[in-house]
Design a protein that fits this description.
By secondary structure, the protein is an alpha+beta fold. Helix content is 25%, strand content 21%.
Length: 323
């Protein structure tokens, strides 16, 4: 008889059998890889290299190859300029461009009250630049029979000669330290500090009176009544506008206690005593900003106020050089 026609069981291919076994066989535990520890010789060589590099840096940092030779001092003018410059140059040449000791430079100019601070930069390999930030005198007080300049924040410049153009500010006592402490004098100094140069130079005396508060007397001009120490920028703007008004010529005082509506007094021929000012001209040295209508000091590059400002801060004394 021939082969049976009954189909026999079909065996799965070999590849499928292996896959089935792989599924049923438990996976072997993963082998944890441990980081290789560096050899002792490698560690020693790395440490030696770091020590050599550190020693080389410290040698180069203080070596004559980078010692400061060319010193440029800027920002200081006036009677003490030469002394301050020499002190900074001498201190700078004891350093290198890779090892600048700013504390040593500050100590070198500490005896000079005109110096407010310094800014230092280097020009590798042998150059150094020192910019002096100067204190700015805005007024003068009398100490021991001598006019002493003082800054807007009350710092006394005892070793600096007072310019004749500085406004005199009376004191009730003698300051014992390096600053004026009397509140009335500080109010006057703050007002002078925010004044435009053109008007500040015209102030002969600044004091606080019972009748008018802060009062600034202009040379060959009226007294300015500021009242309290608020809104100083707005008050200077109002004063500048009134002084520029031909109708205010001959006034004995300008009251800007309310800067939005200044008043003048002592006018001849019955001229109006009060009024708003929208004048096209201002005193010499000032300009009107066409965009805002505010009086601007071109040298300072900033508006004096728009009649609504409430700031009373004194200007940063680093903005200009003391007289």
């Amino acid at each position: 008889m021939g082969e049976s026609s009954t189909p026999s069981a079909v065996r799965p291919p070999l590849r499928l059998r292996r896959l089935r076994r792989a599924r049923t066989t438990p996976a072997a535990p993963a082998r944890r890889l441990r980081p290789r520890r560096p050899r002792l010789r490698t560690v020693l060589l790395a440490g030696l290299l770091a020590a050599l590099l550190g020693a080389g840096w410290f040698w180069l940092r203080d070596s004559s190859l980078v010692r400061v030779r060319d010193v440029t001092v800027t920002g200081i003018v006036g009677g003490q300029a030469d002394e301050v410059t020499r002190a900074l140059e001498e201190a700078a040449r004891s350093m290198t461009t890779l090892h600048v000791r700013e504390q040593t430079l500050r100590a070198a100019v500490e005896p000079y009250s005109i110096v407010k601070g310094i800014e230092v930069s280097t020009d590798f390999p042998r150059g150094m630049r020192v910019h002096v930030i100067s204190n700015v005198a805005v007024g003068a007080v009398e100490l021991a029979g001598r006019a002493t300049p003082v800054t807007a924040d009350g710092t006394l410049l005892r070793d600096v000669a007072a310019s004749a153009s500085l406004a005199r500010i009376p004191l009730h006592g003698t300051p014992g330290g390096s600053r004026v402490q009397e509140g009335e004098a500080l109010r006057a100094l703050a007002a002078l500090g925010v004044a435009p140069r053109a008007l500040r130079a015209r102030v002969e005396q600044a004091a606080v009176t019972r009748a008018h508060g802060l009062e600034l007397q202009l040379a060959d001009g009226p007294a300015l009544w500021f009242g309290d120490g608020e809104r100083l920028l707005a008050k200077w703007t109002a004063a500048a506008a009134v002084l520029a008004d031909p109708q205010a010529a001959g006034a004995t005082y300008v009251d800007v206690t309310a800067p939005g509506r200044p008043a003048v007094g002592g006018l001849p021929d019955g001229a109006p005593a009060t009024g708003e000012s929208d004048l096209p001209d201002v005193p010499e040295g000032l300009e009107i900003d066409p965009a805002t209508g505010a009086a601007v000091d071109p040298d300072a590059g900033a508006a004096l106020g728009d009649g609504t400002a409430g700031a009373t801060e004194s200007p940063d004394s680093t903005a200009e050089t003391a007289p």
